[in-house]
Amino acid sequence: MKIVVCVKQVPDTAAKVVVEDGQVTWGDAPLVINPWDEYAVETALLQEEAHGGEVTAISVGGEDAKEALKHALAMGCSNAILVSDPSLKNADSLVTSQVLAAAIQKLGDVDVVFFGKQAIDGDVGVTAAQTARILGWPSLTLVSAISELDPGTRTISVERSVEEGRQVVSGELPAVVSVVKDIGEPRYPSFMGIRKASRAEIPLWNLAELEVEVSGPVVEWPELSNPPKQEVVTEIISGASSQEIAETLAEKIIEEKVL
Ligand SMILES: Cc1cc2nc3c(=O)[nH]c(=O)nc-3n(C[C@H](O)[C@H](O)[C@H](O)COP(=O)(O)OP(=O)(O)OC[C@H]3O[C@@H](n4cnc5c(N)ncnc54)[C@H](O)[C@@H]3O)c2cc1C
């Protein structure tokens, strides 16, 4: 099977993301593979182990996105490709999806593509469905279990996590699948994997190589600002007994209309 997993490089969850001079910045905080994409890599590797073949990790981003790809390689992916182009600097999710679809088509004969449920920085959560739409493939989103994937009959059956419970959905291959946490804990990169990844030469594709003309961003962020500063006032309530303290606290809570 030819399996693709799409991974994004994002600021670490502990990074302090702020707006400075109208630009989003996280200073020199480390960048990591999008945590949801580790679940996608795990799912891709399990399918490779079950059916054979290879897993290729693809990322659209700058040079630093190679680190996310190296993490995917260290977990066990066979190949990694970075799609990078100066014209992608202000890409929105539609442009990102157009580029991912073109890269998947260039690879050729792909059976299934895995995505994380969302990127923790952009939080748009639509890249998988858009990529499927552009490819013209079924889109199976928020998948919590792969019940059956049969390369022979070219079918896939999955469980989706929805608010009301679980849904069983099936489709034909090739398909695009986005996964949620319930799919299974991602493995840790092995020592051998880390060594292999550190030596890996990651091929770089640009838009000319992909022969794709992307639309301009359809969604623009014309204004960015930090949330208003919150005044925090601390008051220590004292009293002769715990009952008196509790009564004073209750009065204050009612006064402040918290309840
Ligand atoms: C400084 C800054 C400015 C931005 N300006 C804009 C703007 O003006 N308009 C706008 O719409 N967006 C803007 N973005 C958001 C950015 O373009 C989003 O990353 C993009 O819209 C994709 O959405 P998402 O990352 O939320 O993906 P989601 O749809 O939440 O991601 C779902 C899954 O898709 C895959 N995926 C997502 N991105 C990639 C990728 N690059 N490579 C490989 N796989 C990927 C991953 O598997 C991920 O788990 C900006 C981001 C930054 C940091």
Order of helices and strands: EEEEEHEHEHEHEEEEHEHH
Task: Please state how the strands of the largest beta sheet are arranged side by side.
Answer: 11-10-9-12-8-1-6-7-13
Q: End-to-end distance, in Å?
A: 58 Å
Instruction: Find the structural class using helix and strand composition.
Output: alpha/beta
Overall mean pLDDT stands at 94
Helix content range: 25-40%
Which residues form runs of ≥5 with pLDDT under 50?
A: none
Cα-atom radius of gyration: 23 Å
- Under CATH, the topology is which? Rossmann fold
Annotated CATH homologous superfamily: HUPs
Quickly give the CATH architecture.
Answer: 3-Layer(aba) Sandwich
List the ligand species: flavin-adenine dinucleotide
Instruction: Determine the number of helices (DSSP H or I, runs of at least 4 residues).
Output: 7
Instruction: Let me know the largest β-sheet.
Output: 9 strands, mixed
The CATH class is Alpha Beta
Q: What is the beta-strand fraction?
A: 25-35%
Count of all domains:
1
DSSP E strands, number:
13
